[in-house]
Amino acid sequence: MKHPSRAFAAVALAAAGALILTGCSTSSANNNAAGTFVIVTAAQPSSFSYETSATGYEAAEFFQNTGSTLIKNPYIDGEGGDARHQDLYDFEPVLASSYEVSDDQLTYTFNLNTDAVSTAGNNLTADDVVFSMQRKFKTATSIVSFISAPALTDVDTQVVKIDDETVSFTVADSAYGFTLLSLLANTPYNIYDSTVLTEHATPEDPYGVVWSQTNANFGFGAYALTDYTPGEQMIYTANEGYVLGEPAVGRIVQRVVSDAGQRSNLVRSGDAQIATQLRPADQVDLAEADAAQVFDVASNAFVFMPLLTTAAPFDDVEVRKALALAVPYEDIMSDVYRGRLSEIPSMLDSAAPGFDGDGLAANTTDAAAAKQMLEAAGYTEDVAFTITVNNAVPDLQETAVAIQSAANEAGFDVTIDAVNSSAFQEGLAAKTFQASMGRDYAVVQSAPYVLSLFYTPGSPINWPDFDNAALNDAIAAGNAAGDPLADAAGAQWNAAQKVLQSEMPTIYIGYVQPLNAFAPNVDGYAFRTDNVIDYAELSLSGE
Q1: 273-294 mean pLDDT
Q2: Are 534 and 517 in contact (CB under 8 A)?
């Protein structure tokens, strides 16, 4: 493992401004313009503010490409046919030029690259870093405080401006250092242009959150959003002053095409360079025809079904376990995902130092056992419930249908409710769904983060509304064990996973490969743990 404490070489940057998008535009894109990519996708972000709407593929891709973090995990070449991907155990500079770690391993001091320029044209300062962290932790709708513990819990004391070019982060235990660096390398911890947001703040909204919901350009990312037509398209323009260098692709036209088959055909015909959120069957057809590139990775993205544990019928663990036995995993892998889904015995990176997979197993199908379990628990009639699914995500709709058919044979009466993206995100946040289909991931692959992400009590993304003492205790014991990558901590992460497998608040169906396709002449794809595309890495062959 590479040691996370290291200094960076400074990265030079040419200062340049970019247009602040303040409203909708009706200007059209020129598909044939040099340096332009067309990306077709199923939907648009419901908000430009991470603190009010952090979930959904399109939102995650927006945050990645318009924002920047202090550090990042570097990209490395894949092996055994896997695509280029992140090295999760090393870090390199973005907005920080270097960092130092105190002798007691409690204080991380970041030296900032103050030549970095936001898409609004302002240079980076330490005030931007402190302001950004304050906003993330003090906005009532933000999930950051839930996903940061125990590494970061009190930004007032843990994040300190040393001078205009230097900021320190302090942790309470040296064991939290790796997790802290992993957090700071990912998009939930993007640094914002405080000058822009302060200009649009009010006494009731001191961080400009309301303004930023509909105004995009307050980040230090590779691209500015320069044209936005709701429901139709978004146009990104390269930030000439991006800290890592101006991207090769100067213009990204992201078009909304609701039908997945049509998105696939647009790549096949050459009218789009990239299509996202495809059906696996269409991906396989494109690859077999050599019409597009489809990548294989060591995926951390899982197809899963959260079950609301605080209301009937899933407040009964026996019902949850019976449903897990009723899911037709192998059929879903072969029929829905055409081999692009694999079993999931563990939520954690099995290649991580200290990983302990003892006693962990993927879910299996046994309809007869499921029915017997329900009968033994006193259910004399079929157990009725509804699976809610986003109608913009075809593979999840097909998975829900497969579950409905198989579960009906195992003693369940399943209804499927397909809703639009906005209604789906609202229902998830409100925890009104009995069951829902999701495709998600943990962007930070530190074990305590992964295990806490969807199960921290009170968190808005704890969709099962699951609060279990044994799980909480195991995670706390792992945090207390020292280095999260050591064997002692690994044993506690194993114990936590066993609680999840025995209590079944969420049914994990499998690890899914990236569901996108790239034209044959597109270069630069790198798999990320947030499962989105880093536009700054892309180029065309021969250019």
Answers
A1: 96
A2: no
CA distance 163 to 428: 41
Is the same domain home to 81 and 66? yes
Residue 14 in tokens: 């040419």
- Residue 267 within any structural domain of the chain: no
Same structural domain, 332 and 183: no
Quote the pLDDT of residue 425.
87
One domain for residues 339 and 464:
yes
Q: Say if CB 123 and CB 114 are below 8 A apart.
A: yes
Phi-psi domain of 93 (left: phi exceeds 0; alpha: psi -120 through 50; beta: other): beta
How far apart CA 131 and CA 108 sit, in angstroms, is 18
Q: Which residues contact 75 (CB under 8 A, 6 or more apart)?
A: 84, 85, 86, 87, 526, 537
Judging by beta carbons within 10 Å of its beta carbon (0-12, 13-18, 19+), is residue 388 exposed, middle or buried?
buried
Q: What is the DSSP letter of 28?
A: P
Classified as helix, coil or strand, 307 is strand
How far apart, in whole angstroms, are the C-alpha atoms of residue 43 and residue 258?
7
Q: How far apart are CA 110 and CA 148, in angstroms?
A: 18
**Pair (247, 114) in one structural domain:** yes
Q: Check if the beta carbon of residue 2 is closer than 8 Å to that of residue 87.
A: yes
Structural domain containing residue 396: 302-512
Q: Residue type at 178?
A: F
Indicate left, alpha or beta for 207 from its phi (over 0: left) and psi (-120 to 50: alpha): alpha
Let me know whether 491 and 536 are in one domain.
no
Overall domain count for the chain = 2
435 beta partners: 307, 387
Do both 333 and 243 map to the same domain? no
The whole-number average pLDDT for the span 114-135 is 97
Indicate the residue type of 92. Answer: E
Contact 153, 496 (CB under 8 A): no
Q: Do residues 377 and 468 share a domain?
A: yes
Domain CATH code at residue 433? 3.10.105.10
Residue 407 to residues 123, 129, 462, 506, 523, Cα–Cα distance (Å): 57, 50, 25, 16, 43
Please check whether residue 488 lies inside any domain of the structure. yes
Q: What's the CA gap between 35 and 539, in Å, rounded?
A: 8
65 lies in the same domain as 155? yes
Q: Where residue 62 sits, what CATH number does that domain have? A: 3.40.190.10
Tell me the CA distances in angstroms from 377 to 52, 310, 373, 383, one per residue in order: 41, 18, 6, 11
Going through 71-204 in order, the beta strands assigned E by DSSP cover: 71-72, 75-76, 85-86, 92-93, 96-101, 107-112, 159-163, 166-170
pLDDT reported for residue 229: 96
Q: Is residue 280 part of a domain?
A: no
Query: What is Dmax (Cα atoms) for the chain?
Result: 71
- The model's pTM: 0.85
pLDDT of amino acid 543? 53
In a domain? residue 469: yes
